[in-house]
Structures are given as C-alpha cells and as structure tokens.
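Loading example: each entry is read as four labelled lines plus one structure line.
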Amino acid sequence: MGTRPTIHDVAMRAKVSPATVSRLLNGSARVGPETEALVRQAMDELGYVPSRLAQSFARGSSRTIAVLVDGEGESLQGNAFLMTVALGLNDVLADADYSIRIINGHQAMRQSRQTASEWTRERWMRHEFDGVVITNPTTTDTLIEAIVQAEIPAVVIGRYPHAEGLIEIDVDNVGGTRMVTAHLTDIGHRRIAFLGPPDRLTVASDRRQGYLEALTRSGIWPDPDWFLETEGTDLEVFSFDAAHRAVVMAAKKPWSWSAVVAFNDEMALGAVRALLESGMELPRDVSIVGFDDLPFARMVNPSLTTVHQDIRQLGQHAGRALLAVLRGRKVADLTIQTVSLVIRSSTAPTRDLTTVDLEP
Amino acid sequence: MGTRPTIHDVAMRAKVSPATVSRLLNGSARVGPETEALVRQAMDELGYVPSRLAQSFARGSSRTIAVLVDGEGESLQGNAFLMTVALGLNDVLADADYSIRIINGHQAMRQSRQTASEWTRERWMRHEFDGVVITNPTTTDTLIEAIVQAEIPAVVIGRYPHAEGLIEIDVDNVGGTRMVTAHLTDIGHRRIAFLGPPDRLTVASDRRQGYLEALTRSGIWPDPDWFLETEGTDLEVFSFDAAHRAVVMAAKKPWSWSAVVAFNDEMALGAVRALLESGMELPRDVSIVGFDDLPFARMVNPSLTTVHQDIRQLGQHAGRALLAVLRGRKVADLTIQTVSLVIRSSTAPTRDLTTVDLEP
DNA sequence: CTGAAAGCGCTAACAG
DNA sequence: CTGTTAGCGCTTTCAG
C-alpha cells in the first residue's frame, strides 16, 4: 500500500495488458464489456488514478491552457475582470479536462530579459501549454505578435486587429454605447458628451462609434467640444484619474452638455467626482453613464446607469473557441457577445426637455 | 530541423553524456568549465529548450501550485481580491520556476460528484500540483479538511483555525479595525456602531475585536444596539445588500450613533446607501469607515476612509511560505501582515464634540 | 478486440 | 568531474 498503483498494477490484477487499461481510460478504442468490467473493478480495488504527469509526457501535451495577463494594471477593472474571465474559462475547460495556468507574460519576459519571440518560443517548446488566451491586448503588442507568428492556438479577449488569423471574442461595444446613449436621448438629452480614451484601441473607437450612431439616429450633430479625451499611457487613459482630469479641464470652460457617456464605469466615477466637486448635483444637473457594469456600479452613489456585460460568459465563449481550435475545428474569427442596458439612478430626464421641444 | 532537439542531441553535439547536460541544466552537480562552455554552445546552436513535460515526469513533480478559489462568489470583493493574490503568488513562484493553476475546487467537486476527500486524493495522486493555496476559507470546509488530512503542502489566505498544522497568512485584522476605530474616537466620536457579519469566521471576530479594543482604550462602553449584524449564508453576510438591510433595519428604531465601522468596504457602501436613503448627509451626519481599501474605495462618493491592505503582497507572502514548505523548511504557522489607515472623506469630526466634552 | 513492445525526454543512482 | 544504465507511467503503433 506504500506506493501509488500504476497502470501496470491494474493490468496485472485484471489479467489484461496495460494497453487495454489505457484504451479504456481514454476511450481510444473499443474494449470488450467483460474486460471492461474486470478492469474497472481492478481500478476500484486498487484506487487507481492515472498520473497526469505520465499522461502528458506520453501524449506530448499538457492539457493546459495559458491565460496571459498583464499584471501591472492595478486597476479594479483589471483584476476583477481577469479573474472573472478565468473562472469562465475554467467552467468550460475543466469539463474537457484542461486546466488553466495564469501567466504574467510581460513580467515574465522582462524578468528573463528575453524578447517576446524568444520567450514565446521557449515556453511553447517546453510544452507548458497547448493554447493561450490573451486577456489585455494593448495597442500593439510584441507578445501577441510572437504568439501568432509561432502559430500557437490563441484566442484574444477583446480585439486585436493587427494580427491575421487571431480569434477574437468581444462584447458588442458599439451596440452597448449606442443603447446607453439612446437611453439618454430618450429621456430628452440633446447635448451629450463622450468621455473616453484616444482612439488607439479598437475598443475605444467601437464605443465612440456606438455613441455617434445613437446621436445620428436622433438627428443630433455632435459638437467638437463634446469629446472629452483622456491623456496618458496605454492603461492610464482608462482610469478614474485620467477621466477626472479630463472633466475638470473641460469644466473650466463654459460647457453645454447635460449628459456624459463615459467609456467605462471607472471613468464614469471620475466624471462624477469632477462634477460633484464643481458643485453639481447628480443626476439633476448632469446625467452620467458608464460601461461594464462592474459589481460596484450598483453600489456607488448615484448608482450607475451602464451597459452590462457578462464577463464570465465571455470567458466561457473564449474557452469554447479555444477548445474548438485545439480539436482542429473551424472557428469564427470574431465572436460578439451581446450586452444589455441597466438603468439606475445616475441618469434623469433633462430639465431643458421643454426648451428642446420648442426649438423646432 | 523539423523536430525539437532533445537533451540527447545536445549531448551528442557537445560530445558529452546526456547526464552532464542534465546536471548543467539544473545545477544538481558541478560541471567542468570547459565542458560547460561546450554544452552551452551546443544548446545555443540547437536552440535547445528542455521539455517541461519530460522534466516533470522524470522528477515526479509538476512544479505547479494550485490556487483553490471558490468561483461562486460573484462579489467584487471576491474576484479582484483573488486575481490580485494570484498575481502576488506568481511574482514569487515564477522566480522559483513554479507556476500557478487556478482550480475552482468546490465546483469541480460538485461536477465530478465526489466527496472532498475523494476529489483531493485523486488530484493529488495525479500529481497535478505540488502544493496548494487556499483563498477563501469558509466556516468549516470539507475540502480544506481533506487537504490537511492528506498532508498536502498548503497555505491558507486568511485564518482557518479548525485545522491543525495549516499555514496561515493573514492581515492584521484586529489592528486594522482598532486603528480605524481609534481614528473615529480621535475626531470626537463616542457612539460608534459596528456593522459586520456574525462571528462565525475568525476574520469577523478579529475585526470586531479591534473595534472593541479601540473603544475600550478610549473608555467607551459599547451599547448592545451598536452591533448591527448582517444575516444570510456564508458569503451573503459580507455583501452590500446584507449590510444595506441591516442598516435600514437599525435605522427604523431610534438610534444614537454618529459613526459606523463596517466590516469591509462593500458593506460600508451598503451602509452609505441606507443612510443616504434615510435622508442623511455624509459625512456630516454620520461617519462611515470600511476595510480593505479596494480600488473603488477612493472612487466612490464620499470616498471611503478605510484600512489598506496590500493584497498582492499577501499573495507574495503566501507564495514564499509555500515555497519554504515545499523545500522542507520550517515555516511559521501564522504570518500577520501589517495594514495601514487611509483617511478620506467619509469621516468627519462629530458635531456633538462639544457636548461630549461637557458631559463629565 | 487484445497483447507485445517500443518509446516519449529527462533524471538519478552508481560506477569510474 | 563524467559516463553508463535504468527507469518514471503512460500511449501507441503493429501484429495477431
């Protein structure tokens, strides 16, 4: 009883060959019913569990998929989002007997002082994973390029248009901001600002586009100074502070909007802070909307009207897509997940509704 | 060039034995300097990278540590916390060439319809991991018990006093609430409520104790109805909604506190919401403090005075402890990480300061 | 449907 | 310090 039983022990006990046990284990070929019963009994009696290590070795694959995260972003956004995606991935991958491994790619690269392609090649050759999920694509990312180049099965959460043949799983960003902006026009707003990062990333231009579409549909022609653009490095532009700065800046000049569509919830909070500081009362004076519906969106005051996305489901979609790729199936290059509008108390009918109605 | 070079190829090319290459690879024995040069050159020329799979198999260990999460809690708390811990673990484990694997333990158990000990035994026997980090200990957890029973190297984030010999890494909960409560008394508050979950978990009683200690030191004798206790299941009691309910309930009766110490930031927000709804102005009428200093704590309005804990560092501590255990070193059973007070705008001097001063 | 046999690529005694 | 020799436990041809 001292040592782990091996496939060999099971075979001996069932008086069959190890090969038969193996076949039963992974259903790689049919096994006679009575042989099967014998083997199963032997496994039970011995308490046999196959060694993952030996299986992986023999198969030459680890049944592991790497989740590449960028662990620098300390943003709330970041970490809650990442773990939720990871759980979603796990939901579907666990069933397929894959497991997920978190890798802080950029940090690892820096640490080992390797270039992206060196690093990628090395990890790939080590058979550390069979596929990868990329969670925070930045503007242009050497690591992603290297992964694509190396033809490693990969799925990206979000968009990364710079690379051919990468499978993208994203939420409907255009539709989301369109919806939430339409909600604003529905309750009478006509002068609606957009607070977002510069258009470097697809997600940024997508969300801006949804906003524009909604305005256009309502026959509103956006004024150039309705665009409040944050400044900073890749991650900074999405932050509370950047949003806060942008709005403080904008509020210095005379401004004329009655609502603001923020790129995300965190930035919406930055706007809220800035407006509150300048003595506004919300949502009476200005309506504000966000995007993401992070858990805190309903807990803050005023609670945020925002666009809800099911992040865990996003992870599940990504997992399914990757699984399909690994099994050699054809997969859509782009999956767009629907989002929904959540109306809370950061939006209210505009007070100049009547004025507007009179205008024409 | 079609196939991956193996240790054998390197050995041939360098005209040494595979064993020598192996020794160089993991520094398991001294190698002559010129041999080393030869081997290194051969490795470079071939672009050799050792196969993780083969290494793990030969060693009988996966160099993987499992991070057990409970993926049911959709709480903000939960996921941001978990990923941050994971990143901290990664920081130190990556250096030691370990990698981390996220496992949704309870879900996996349920899925495979196994008992905790069956599940644990099976995973352990499969050599899927060398050690485990447990992230959300609940009141009494069969999975943890099974892990301890199986003598698997394990570290728990938080406290789990029910199990002998488990290594615990926690923050200074007592000190934290003591500090933040003392801040309240410092600015004149004498009637301070505590909003928390029932005392089932150590973390709950610890934080309550810190509160009590601070009061005692200020010569305040807490009134029984200063204790606002949330109700619900294991995870619910820590939630925004539970906190909101508890405060709404309490606010129905005449109450007499000027400040409330909430168990955590999320619950503090629940209290804020309830108080705002009942027409209070914060922090003018009531001061509120939280615990955790989650990223959103500074973004909400009013921004929360709270206790900051470095979660990533918590993960790093856990990683170091586990590494030490795996290396057979003696490790302290309990590590307490210090926390710090962050004063923001949810607290203000009490208005009845003068009244209080006159009382004696 | 089943068995025999040959590895997968590396590590780890054991000699020398 | 280095080479030889066995495996680690499973999968997978290839025969039968």
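Chain B has a mean pLDDT of 89.
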